[in-house]
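Hey, can you fold this one?
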Amino acid sequence: MKERLYEILNEEKIHEIIPFLKELTEEERKTLVPTIKKMDREISKIIMTKNSYHTAGSANQHSIIDIASFVCMDQKNFGKNYWSLFRNIKQTEEILEWGCPNWFSNFINESIDAEFTAFNYQDILGWTEKGYVEPKPELWGHHLSNYPADLDHHPETLNTHFWYLCEYPSKSLPFRKEWFPIVQKLVTEQKIERKRFLRECLLASNRNFNKNVTGWFMDAFTALKPTDQELVDLQDELLAGLASVQSKASNTILTHLKKIVATPAFKSDEFSHYLPNLLSSEVKTVVISSLTLTEKIFQHKRLDPEMLGIALSTAFVSKDDGIQSKTAKIILKYIPVSESIKEALSHYADNILTNVRPSLVLYIEKEQPELEAISSEKLFLTTEENKLKELESFEDLMFFLPLAIDDPYSYHCDVALAGLVRFANEINAESVKLIEPVFLKACKTISKWEVPYLNVLLCNLIINYGLSLLEKYPMQLKNLEKIYQKTKEDEATREASSNYNKKLGPVEKVGVEGPAAKAFKEFAIYINHKVKRGDHIPLLFTITHSPCWISPVTLVERLEIYQNKNVQPDHLDFQLALQRCALDDTSEALQLAKEKLKGEYKELLLFFFDKNAKPTGKFEHPSWWMTAGITRSPQTVFKEFSHFGYDNIPTEFFTGAYSWKTIDNKKNSYYPVELSIAIPKYHLEKRKDPLFMEYFVADQKELSEIPALMWSFPNTPANALAKVIKYCLFYSGIAEVYERNLVLNTTKALYQIKKPLDEMGYLFLGTIFLDGDKTIRGTAAEIWLEHVSHQMIDNERLGKVIGLHEKLEWAPVKRLTDLMQNHMLNVSKNHNIALEKLITNILLQMEKPVTNLKKLLDVYHEILALNQSEADQNVKEKLNDWKENSSLKKICNLLLKK
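Sure. Predicted structure:
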């Protein structure tokens, strides 16, 4: 039986597969399943050629396996192959006639989750008539959405299935342009009930459809031009749609409600229940439309204004001047002063803008409560709160290694590596069994095509460690051999690819893609040798405090161990330890170094821990001294180091001071304004004492090492930030997911590092203040808030960066003003003073008025009022010029009066 199947496959006798399968019993078909799976793996192997690739099997062989799988397998084994088998519908029909699987109906019903199918609505109609499928409403709705044709051929299509389309549409419905005119035609011909369809369109607003599908139904509703009477009849559905999470639905419904607000049947009380949610929307058009409709209600209705008035107070959650001013006008015109209104407004009193506050003097307290100035406390990088717990046993190590595999860029990896060096040989016949699940996880991880390089190295270390234990404990770890052989087979398949880097085998033979990878590979080789030798002397580079810091006291203690054992540290291990050392409080470490260390260790750390000390000594290890100098004082050139031979490395990589500018690409419509930063080219050179830094600044091609770069150079992150700026922030409209994630992760890292910013830090922070991603901008605001709280930010430098960007409209000003209003305004007295200075320096860079400059001037006016100060004299000179612009005249005059 198996031999016959192999014969059909190898000789590509596709016409014989169905007769062969017909002859088999159900039990015989089941026994063929493992063979079919094996065949499928064999013909699915990728064959690489010089310019392309293909599978090992031919088209006929794949068809044979598809048919055999369908007939012999159950649904679980067959999987979700909604394409291959059904490309030949006639062939599929032939199979179904004599052997429709009992799971076929369920399989087809689940096809609504498939990205593509090779069958359509008409096929499902046919299968239903023949009893092969019992379709669910969701199936009809999904597949009819994708089949806007032949709607009159089956009576159920328009009578039933079309309404399922309204309730369970496909995500692709909006992209089937034929549906719009078809629906209009069917409504006109009365083949679809008009009022029912209008109702379904409104119900779509709260059916959790995506914004495209919801938008399609809203557009369909509007295109049918419902009459006022129809709108009145559908008023309950219209009002319910106001609770939609989609702003398109809310805006569409508000537009239609305005048409019937004057009719006696308009339900103003019911509308008031939805008003608070509408007015707290982040979408300005929804808020403005809601205010406009509310005003029309007051104009056309005789009602008790209190209910609407209380709901109206919610609008003050927004700090937009236009929204607050419009709300205040409605309140003054239509809502009498009462205790209830005062109470409602009191909840938003702190949020009401200073230029709006005087008009509401009868409704709120006259005096705005004064914000307190917060006392600044020094921020320490290493405290008990962020201290990491060390592993205490082999069992702890086995628990921690999977965490490190899941996130190799976190502190878990450092803790795990430190534990591996310390506990790798502290095992027995019982505890050694704990390695199996860790080994399996490492093999599964390394078997993936795309694996971060640190993960490759970590998993390789674990696998090699597991194989060494297998030699000592063959009985306890017999499963490791099977796991490893399967992983080797998978890699052998991938090695056919010309761009594949080896991951298994000795760590020395693991492939590398760039200089940064070489540095980490050296670490992996070093750690592997320590484990093999049973060398328990601690690694120097492993962090002691999250997210990436080494306590200076711990560094002294670790070096003392090396000194006492007369062992020289690895050159990269020592450099990385210096780079990660927290230098904010070194007094205790300085004293300990004087007492415990000798020779070069002592001289080096006395220089490193004392900001004012000059380097003295024999300089036996130039790379250590150079790293100490760059980490401690990146802007300082030490003449004592001039003979070290690092003169060929561009100074930008030492100082972090890159030249940059925002430029107007007048001829480039795709990138109209671009942030340009100059990063020198540098190729890694072979030298006796290479700097750890060299591996990361050489050959600026890959960005995958950026997370490691941030955690490896927390004292001097400029080189990492410059890379991200160059490749991910050159244009404010960049929307690729990879770049967005990289910028977000870099932003989070900068927030966690909690150090005063250098020049690239200010450029990065000022740029992400204007980023298109809301989460990135929010994290930027958090960095600013914390740095202001601890008095470690220069708002003049930050303002200059933002101003130089916005002078050329690198990004919409609204991103900046929304961030200021929602995150940075009125946090504390200190923050308000800092924000005033920030805006002042942004405005000082401006020349001609830019789009939405009025919004920034509104925020400036508000912060000056809160700080009881007046506009900077140099800004006033600009305001005198800008007031000639009609849209800026009012706000400029207000600022000039201050």
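Residues 148 and 815 are 41 Å apart (CA to CA). Let me know if you want another pass with a different chain boundary.
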